[in-house]
Amino acid sequence: MPDDAAPSPAELAALKAAAAQAAAEAAEAKAAAAQAALEAAEAAAVGTAGTVDTSPAPEPPVRDAPADAPPSGVPSPVDGPPEAAPPTQAPPSGVLDGYAAEVAAGYAYQGGTLALGALLEATGSGDPVPRADVQVGFSLAMLNRHGLVAGATGTGKTKTLQGMAEGLSDAGVPTFVADVKGDLSGLAVPGVSGEKILDRTASIGQDWEPTTYPVEFYSLGGLGKGIPIRTTVSDFGPLLLSKVLGLNDTQESSLGLIFHWADTQGLALLDLKDLQATIAYLTSDDGKAELKGIGGLSAATAGVVLREIVTLQAQGADVFFGEPAFDTTELLRVAADGRGTVSALELPAVQDRPALFSTFLMWLLADLYQDLPEVGDLDKPKLVFFFDEAHLLFTGASKEFVAQVVQTVRLIRSKGVGVFFVTQSPQDVPRDVLAQLGNRVQHALRAFTPDDAAALRAAVRTFPTSPYDLEQLLQSLGTGEAVVTVLTEKGAPTPVAWTRVRAPRSSMEPAPEAVIDGIVAGSPLAARYAVAVDNESAYELLTARIAAQQAAAEQAELAEQLAKEQEAARKEADRAAKKESAELEKMRAKLERDAARSGGGSRTAPRKSTASSGLDKFLGSMATQLGREITRTVFGTRRR
């Protein structure tokens, strides 16, 4: 071919193919070099879990470039610029290498799985790329090892919780969720499809379609919409009630003493007026002696407790205590189609009383522990309990209260119940509680203050070693993204995975009020719990006891007064009798003297006899009358 001859189409095609092959080989070489650099960095890093490498962390491994892509910075030999791959395009299934392969292997379970999302990979520039072929999720069998969902406000914690509740329902596992703001009521309404959500779900390999879920709505004592959940004061117990009332250690101890006395007396503390009546009785003259042998109750402490109870009643919280008491096993219900029921406790009406509703949630958990049998490890839990706004539970909590929470969380695992604490920062949960949480979903954390920065570094130290610079990554996570590590079926932590969380299939908006009202009205639990009842309890029994004691005291006082009056009347009658007797004696003596002066001799003898006879009659009549008066006075029949 002459030097100035143009290449034929076949020769041009061959040249293009050769150039593409060279570009592919260059890309492979570059990827191999990057992988070697990553392995060298990992070998140099500290290899213990939970240790932070202070040196700059390497970039997360990037997926291999497509075979027909030119190396970075090298122009394409073909005419025109190459088409850029979509940023969410995933590599072909099965093509895994580096850290993505490690993550995929770590989250491959033999048993049931609760899907959470897909792995995200950094691209070195631009947005991260989701790997639809690397799914991240929980082992259903390990959900009773409990967990933590944490993150700053607006990072997607609530939607993560909603998606987890949906996945558990599909797996036949009932869940309990505390709906503080009313957002989770959307579980009862199908989600709204759209281009944005379909693009997102397709990019992470989620099969999305609008779905409704079986939901049961509850409310605390009937405040708000839902089946009322009530409990008795006795079942709630002095420790939890002290937390609600804000009592100090001394006052908490005194409250425990009051509960103990009521139990020994067979007095049922059903509602707050029962507790008020008991405290009032124990500080009264009749009841003070009741507690002397076991420590006593000071009037000052009793006054503080009574004032706090009045404050609680003024907030309307007294409706939480009473009957019919809620049976917590109702939370274990499964719908007719085999899906687990989502029990949503609607709390918007009491969100201004956080200590109350958070402590009430703790009572639900503690009551479940008391009622459920031991079952050990199951293929899937009997119930998963989501404890939202968990930081409110521990604010100002006493050591005894925290110890009870730790014990309940530690032991309820064997009852087949998993507990997830949902809060803003891991620092909100006490270390003893945090140590029981094996599954972690960490959304973005903010570090606006030195305290925030310290909390961020502390959170980083709790994660296993990974190629991520977690201190930087946790501050840059987008909404709906999280850093995840959970427990495998062998109890070991999975690799840390930067995850894009699945979108809920139900509505992400609150359900319309008409929908909630219809579900509540049609619930089989409405007939059982809707109407409050007031059975005989401590208030009625102590009121009757006090009335009986008052009646007995009045009778004793009346008898004592009557005895005093009778004694006074007897003394008065004695004095009157003595006085009248003396007067009669004087009269008799006077008559005798008068008779003696009137003359002597035989002529006067009959007259004397007559006078003596008249005197004797008069004296007899006076004696009879005097006897009657004395008798009437002594026996209280004297007319006045």
UniProtKB/TrEMBL annotation:
Gene3D superfamilies: P-loop containing nucleotide triphosphate hydrolases
Pfam family, one: HerA_C
Every Helicase HerA-like C-terminal domain range: 132-637
Region entry Disordered, spans: 35-94, 564-619
Comp. bias (Low complexity): 35-45
Compositionally biased intervals (Basic and acidic residues): 564-596
Domain of life: Bacteria
Compositional bias ranges of the Pro residues kind: 68-90
SUPFAM superfamilies for this protein: P-loop containing nucleoside triphosphate hydrolases
Protein name: DUF853 family protein
Taxonomic lineage of the native organism: Bacteria, Bacillati, Actinomycetota, Actinomycetes, Micrococcales
